Amino acid sequence: MPTTPSSQNRSESREGTKAPEPADSRDGHTPLLGRRAAKVDRLAELMGRREEGGHGAGVWRTAFDRMRRSPMAITGAVIVAVFVVVALFSPVIAPYEPVAQTWGDEVFPNRSVFVGPRAENWLGLDNLGRDQFSRMVIGARQTLLVGVVATLVGFGVGALLGGAAGAAAVLGGRWGRQVDNLVMRVIDMMLALPTLLLAVTVAALVGPSLTTVMIAVGVAQVPIFARLLRGAMLSQGSRDYVLAARALGVRKHRIALVHILPNSLGPVIVQSTLTLATAIIDAAALSYLGLGNPDPAFPEWGTMLADAQRFLSSAPQLAVYPALAIIVTALGFTLLGEAMREALDPKLRK
Amino acid sequence: MSSSTPLLAVDELSVVFGGHGSDEVRAVDGVSFTLEEGRVTGLVGESGCGKSVTSLALMGLLPDRGVRVGGSAVMQVPGGTADLLKLSQRRMRDLRGSQMAMIFQDPLSSLNPVVPIGRQVTEILRRHRGMRGSAAAKEAAELLDRVGIPDPERRLREYPHQLSGGMRQRALIAMAVACRPRVMIADEPTTALDVTIQAQILELLKNLVTEEGTALLMITHDLGVVAGLCDDINVLYAGRAVEKAPRAPLFAQPTHPYTVGLLGSIPRLDAPRGEPLTPIRGSINDNIAWTRGCAFAPRCDHYTMECLQGPPDLVAVGAAAGVEGGGGSTGAAAEHVHRCVNPVRGADTADRSAPESPAAVGEDEEAQG
Fold first, then answer.
1. Which ipTM score applies to this complex?
2. I need a surface site. Which of A62, A63, B259, B281 has the fewest CB within 10 A?
3. pTM, rounded to two decimals
């Protein structure tokens, strides 16, 4: 089994930093016995750790072990890693300026003359004679920015609403249940609207810009996060440790923040990976609909797709590249998120 | 506080679940007992007889919807007395943890899995004693040391899953005694532990009671635990006390058929090999309403038609007419009461008096004294 040695290695490396301390503190009285006791303790701990897997930090560790063996997770992680690296270092990677119409005299869209892939332009030229590869690379950065910011917006607002509703429902008594009811009905209304429609509405209200896209896509994710966190908090709220904390007189806000919230964040974190994929697709869709950033200096995959539509019959490759990029990136995030969800869900474990 | 007034006097406590549309369930129906400093009171009975609900009601931890709590539970608190069942939520929250604490059955699920032990202990110190930072950490280490956790400084940094079952329960006890509560409720504290750890935990609880003068309410279904620890015992059935007595008379001369049945269903090490256990037949669901007669009658080997003529009262043992076997217990008669019209008496129970649960080994001689 590949996992057993690896988990041992990790525990040993931890031991290297931790073990000397208890040994030292005991050396004073009974060196031999102390060292042996420490060794036995350590062994018991290692055994316990391997058997456990059902609680606390162990959940994430076993999930990680599981994910390292899953081809789905590896594929997703590789795609995501490549995408993130390209997006972060896009100015370095892009060989040309994305807006420079350097080869403008070689492309004649009116006469259906386009330039395909060649040595200096790996993906050919677009309809204005700009380097398609550079535009794709710079576009990755925009996509990542939109995806991350939109997810953060959705996560932040959604977690705030859902967390407040969940905490109120679990600990607030009759009053809290009413607060929870009110918040959740609003969330339900948001959930009833199709995501894209909601995003289009927001974008149409505020006017086309990159910020609009980010807010619109983020708002569309709010109800999902809110419901998820509230549900997780409700299920945690009936756990014994919450009762135990109440039995010790711990204040309600501390129970909510210190006890219930950290235990409820797992599914929300997984969901944010999946949301990144949706956010990227939604952002591309909004840009495609003309609600994205109109500034050509910041190419975006959705905008590029929309621009390429006019030349679909003569130069389909102009549409294929951004479309493929969107699909593959979204696939990467989805694969990673799904693998993570599967690894964390005890029901799906084999 | 004079020793004559009990620390906590529970009088006619009743808890009713349900209401709108659904049938009402009387989970606890007029239970009375007292807790005194330095004494252990036991609540005994099988699952579903209302033990845990009693404890949650006293702690004010029952859900606020669909539950009606009646009776009174007067406790001596700093600056007078207070009825726990009528206090405001805020006041209860201040009392919980500082004046009264509770130990739960499953030590793993009662600890927050993602928070280190140290933080969970210092949280209590901070909440009720206002301690912070290094002072709280030092006190927490002392607490862990006091409940017998070796190397407390290291344990404080660890998570619940890194501790053994016994150590987790010790940590929970440390949290419960952090503010030296005057009343402690232990709800089956040893059920999830193996027998050797069980004995250690019981020893620890006993020491805490004798050293601190805490009143302990011990809730258990394990008569071995009762024999080893409890001073006064209340046997509950279907929400009512069916027999209450100090430890010695209860084990020496159980009178209620339910108590006799419980004692009889304990496996004994010295029993001949292959001999079947004698269980109480049926289950707790096979009862009748207390208003119509003795709830235990359908499962009772001793019942007569008289048992079904309305609810039996709690009467002193020996008060009923024609007592032959209970003659020796005249001194204890006032303390030994039961709710039965046709009690068991005589020699057929004498050989069942001492349960042989390993947790009680070494404590039995005290039971006689």
1. 0.80
2. B281
3. 0.75
